[in-house]
Design a protein that fits this description.
By secondary structure, this protein is an all-alpha fold. The chain has one domain. It contains eight helices and two strands, in the order ααααββαααα. A two-stranded antiparallel ribbon has the order 1-2. The chain is globular, with a radius of gyration of 17 Å. The relative contact order is 0.12.
């Protein structure tokens, strides 16, 4: 379904104002973009991953519907929230797979470069999540930048809009966060 940014923004305003029916009209307008972003992320995962992009988008939709007080500033903010939800869903999924296997810690060779992990093992995703939780204590903006860019597929421009900073700041924070995460993930592998 073809939609304009104004259509999406108008529905987000209505949703933020308490119109719960707005989510039903919003999802067909944003579904293709959410699916594209989920597909983009899932391409990094192993080919036999039990969670497919369509299922991930449906999980995000259910989480959005369950929110009692949705408040979205604009389209970019909506996609940032969707990125956060994708991160939680994927992390929970990886955690349940690891606990079902009883084990599966970090492996040598899992980290190859900043935010390029072997994702054929759920521990890679959990390693990123654990490191992001540490990073949020040190620099919450860098954590948000990684979450939006890595999990949500937001562009530097969209991320800057959500955070209210310049594109240059987002690029700098992205670079610094990736370097910190690379170092931290390498440490986790050697400790694990």
């Amino acid at each position: 379904m073809e939609s304009s940014p104004n259509d999406v923004t108008a529905l987000l305003v209505r949703l933020s104002s308490g119109d719960k029916g707005a989510i039903e009209r919003l999802m067909p307008l944003v579904y293709a973009e959410l699916h594209r972003r989920a597909n983009q992320y899932m391409r990094q995962e192993r080919s036999d991953h039990t969670l497919q992009p369509t299922a991930l988008v449906h999980e995000v939709y259910l989480k959005l519907v369950q929110q009692r007080e949705a408040s979205f500033k604009n389209r970019a903010h909506f996609y940032a929230i969707a990125a956060q939800l994708m991160r939680r869903i994927l992390t929970d999924h990886a955690r349940s797979r690891l606990s079902a296997k009883r084990g599966g810690g970090y492996e040598e060779g899992m980290v190859t470069e900043p935010l390029q992990l072997r994702t054929d093992h759920p521990a890679g995703l959990l390693a990123i999540n654990d490191a992001l939780q540490e990073l949020s204590v040190l620099d919450s903006r860098q954590e948000k930048v990684v979450e939006m860019r890595f999990f949500g597929g937001l562009t530097a421009e969209e991320t800057a809009e959500v955070l209210g900073v310049s594109i240059r700041t987002v690029e700098r924070e992205w670079s610094m966060a990736r370097a910190w995460l690379y170092t931290r993930l390498k440490t986790q592998v050697s400790e694990g």
